Amino acid sequence: MVIMRMGIEAADGFPCDAFDRAYYEAVVRTPGIYSADLQAGVVITEVKTQITTALQAVLYRHRRARETALELTDLVNLPREDRPSDWHFTTQTRLFEFFVSLHSAFESSFYGLYFAGSRLDRQRFTFADDPGKYQRVKVQSTTETFQAAWPNEPLPKAMSDLRADSFYDRLGKVRNRLAHRIAPGFEHRITLHADGITGGGSLTSGQQGEDYELAWQGEPLATMIPSTLTQAEEKLDVLWDAAAAFFASRQ
Known about the structure:
Blueprint: E1 2-3, E2 9-10, H1 16-29, H2 35-40, H3 46-76, H4 87-118, H5 139-149, H6 154-164, H7 166-180, E3 187-194, E4 208-216, E5 219-220, H8 221-249
Helix pairs in contact: 1-8, 3-4, 3-8, 4-5, 4-7, 4-8, 5-6, 6-8
């Protein structure tokens, strides 16, 4: 675990450097553009609260995704004869938590970045002025608003690239599927092996066995889960690195 500038622990694999730099440039250094607040000496604004709570959510959601990834890996590698009676329930629950938490890390990122952007351009980031419209701050609205305000900057491009990425699209579809039903179609793949066949065709003691793996959507879960987590962490790093550079350039 790494203690972030916000005072919260980040799990292994989190893009700590990029995230910390973005938080510093967007929240700590940026004084805000609310003249009434500045004149009154108010440091914490409602918008700043929205940014920090969203960024806290990014850290928490990623941490939970990594925790469930480790738990899932242990579950799917557990020999069938050693599985407890609630193994299927626990596996389905952890799979749900993994994809929902990982997808939420991206959604919370865009939510926080929208409010961070509103501190620079209140004319375009209008949802930030009305708490009744906060629920309209989504990945699409954030991307489109940044593109309209700063069309040639790397951050809006990083947002657009992520939205168009097949990995992110699949992540959202799996999350939506699991939000309404359990993961259908688990495949139980068994490969028998007998390395010690004697000349008479019989098996020597202890040489007969089987290899077993649990698969879903055509891929073994034991490799799908860590691979999905790694890809997500890489894409979060790209997004927050672009955010750090963008807000640093606004100073």
